[in-house]
Every structure is written in structure tokens, then in C-alpha cells.
């Protein structure tokens, strides 16, 4: 078949999700936001006071977590469900952003989610964004993009996104969170964030949204 897997990785707030979503919708591909999956596990751990240093507690918690993506007609985008509850906007809250990178360092959590992500790609025709898609989840992906952008630009975009959810957060707080997450994400033992050797880098600092989408679609047409 002529459908492929597109892996989009990069730092927090570079426009991965919005770009991936638009690319998928134009191609008629499925879109999977893997960050939402790590955020969902983080929300569950927070609610059930799971001690992430206890392997026993982590393993037990993971057996009680069912994640699903369902298409939301109103917003024309997919929403994540945790054990049947739509948690799409809950997981964008700042207190989850502050905890997610720590939870994402846990090997058991990563293995649990990576297995599910690989299943979602068996039929190809998928755009997946995250930190380890091109390196670990789909090293065989036909197109790998690594997105970067300067911190102030990323922080402003994140602030606007939070405003859209009704959350007023100071720019300094957002910058602090982005930098902390980038550091934890790129230095952890288990599948750290790094650019795959065969990934194509797109710096979105000076790009309009539509330009980002076009760049990825253009890369698809080039022989990799
Ligand atoms: O993409 P988003 O910013 O929502 O991701 C939230 C966090 O989830 C990241 O900062 C990272 O700690 C973790 N993550 C990950 N691997 C992925 C996707 C997200 O470790 N594939």
C-alpha cells in the first residue's frame, strides 16, 4: 500500500501536535498524540497517589488503566479517554505538565505505552507525535520529522493554548516548565528525546502554522 508512518518528535511546544493533527487530517490518516498518553497515566497516578518509585504500585496501577482515542465531532479532533472518561482538557492543566516528565522516565510506563502505540501503527496511515517515535516506537517510519523552535516562541504558543482552555499562566512559569521538561526528557535513561539520525529537522521559530504543515507534506513527496 502507499500509506506510510510519519513520526514527529521534538521539544515541548514546538508545534508538533497541531502540525501532526493538520497533516493527518489532510491525508486522511489517523493522528496519535503520545504526549496525551503519558499525561493520562500521570493524571491516574496523581489521582490514585501512586508512588512512582514503587515498582509494585506502578505495575498494579498500569493494569487498571485503559486508554482510548475517540473522534469528537464538535471539535473535529480526537480526544483521549481514561477508563471511559474524556480527560482531553484535564491533562493540559499546568499541574499535570509539572508531573508528566517524571512519570515518563519510568521504564514500565514507557513499555506499557510503546506497546499500545506500535499496535496503532500496524495498518500504517498514521501520524504520531512525541519524543521517541522515530527512535523507539517506529524506527522504520518512512518519514521522520524533528521539530525545534526557540524557547520564547514555544512559551508564547503554550500560553495561548492554555488561555484557550481558560488557564491564565505567567510566561515565566511556562518557560520554567518547558526547560525542566526538556532537560528531564533528553537526559533520562529510558528512550531519551533525541533526533533520529534519519529525521529531518524543521525549525518552526519563524514559520507560520500553515508553512509548518506544508513543509511536512512536501517532505512526503520527496524520496526519503
Ligand atoms: O507532547 P507533550 O508536551 O504533551 O508531552 C508531555 C510529556 O510527556 C513530555 O514532556 C514527555 O515527558 C512525555 N512524553 C514522552 N514520550 C513521548 C511523548 C511524551 O516521554 N513519546
UniProtKB/TrEMBL annotation:
UniProt-annotated binding residues for ATP: 10-18
According to the entry, every stretch annotated as the Cytidylate kinase domain falls at 6-221
This protein's record includes keyword Transferase: yes
Q: Which UniProt keywords apply?
A: ATP-binding, Cytoplasm, Kinase, Nucleotide-binding, Transferase
- Respond yes or no to whether keyword Lipid biosynthesis is given for this record: no
| Reaction equations catalysed | dCMP + ATP = dCDP + ADP; CMP + ATP = CDP + ADP
Major location category of this protein: cytoplasm
Q: Which SUPFAM superfamilies does this entry report, sorted A to Z?
A: P-loop containing nucleoside triphosphate hydrolases
Q: Which GO terms describe its biological process?
A: nucleobase-containing small molecule interconversion; pyrimidine nucleotide metabolic process
Cite the Pfam families for this sequence: Cytidylate_kin (PF02224)
State the Gene Ontology terms under molecular function. ATP binding; CMP kinase activity; dCMP kinase activity
Q: What is its EC number?
A: 2.7.4.25
- Give the EC class as a word: transferase
Q: Which domain of life is it from?
A: Bacteria
| CC annotations in GO | cytosol
**Localization:** Cytoplasm
Q: PANTHER family in the record, alphabetically?
A: CYTIDYLATE KINASE, CYTIDYLATE KINASE/PANTOATE-BETA-ALANINE LIGASE
Q: Which family does it belong to?
A: Belongs to the cytidylate kinase family. Type 1 subfamily.
| Listed name of the protein | Cytidylate kinase
